[in-house]
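Async update (no meeting this week)

Hi team, since we skipped the sync, here's where things stand on the single-chain job. The sequence we agreed to prioritize is pasted below, unchanged from the tracker. I ran it this morning and attached the output directly underneath so nobody has to dig for it. Comments welcome in thread, and please keep replies under the output.
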Amino acid sequence: MGKAAGKTFKSIEEQVALLQARGVATDAETPSVLLREGYYAVVNGYGKAFLDPAATAAASDDRYLEGTTFDQIYQLFLFDRELRALTFRAVMSVECTLRSILSHTFCEHHPKTEAYLRRGCYAQQSEYLRGSDGYDGDLTWMINTLEHHARGHTSDERDDEPHDGQQVAWYREHYHEVPLWVLFSDLTFGNLRYFFALMKRNEQRIVCQRMRETCGTTSAGKTLSPAGMLHDLETLGQLRNDCAHEERIYDATYGADEATYQQVLSTLVAYLGEWDEARLLEGVRRLSLRTARLTPAVAPILAARGFEIVGS
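Output:
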């Protein structure tokens, strides 16, 4: 069997013609949108929701439902962009809280400044939440990562005070040790998740309790175990990455249980304070209602994914 032919470059005019040939009505704004946003991002990313399955199968090529317009596809694209912005802001709030609680709890139990470089300050292999088989490798990697960030930065000698991006280097040069709460500003959400998994079990339980205490009355009764929190952090980490890298989220699924955005949203709000929770949920509600009202063809697509499309 011969190798399949690759995709060839198409001009904006050719892209518009291709859309029209596949049954998508275009308008005067279509060329500028395609040039600004990209055919792949808009059409390949969001056109699937408007495809005619029978016509597509018969033609062995994409064919769209009768009445589909490019603007409808673009409005779904814009909906998801705004949804990512709302969601990412909320996840970043959780990440900020997580950094604070993890560092505070660890340092409370291990007060020496660079105790995070000592293997004895972490869980035993038998209690490692990610499984004993990966314990040695994960612990070694975590300590190496922390040591790299603590020792791998230099700063300008002319700087008398720390500023964004140089806190770790400033502490290293002026104090010769870097506290964990400073070092954590350099770590990713994934790093924080592994750090939590490697903490001693009693410290993990304290982290869980403190996370509950920051969630306000709405989530105060949520039962949160170390294993449950790790599962939640893994899911939220995937969501965070999708938001950061502009992946589609409105119809995405997460984790081995293939949780929908709506299900992950329920997880996310459980880690937010009351004000952040209300802002996120109201923002998603208003965005859904506005999109459904302005672009009725998008409404059933959103409804099928659990978004509110009817209301005041």
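Quick observations from my side:
Residues 79-288 form one domain.
The first strand starts at residue 253 and ends at 254.
Reply here if anything looks off.
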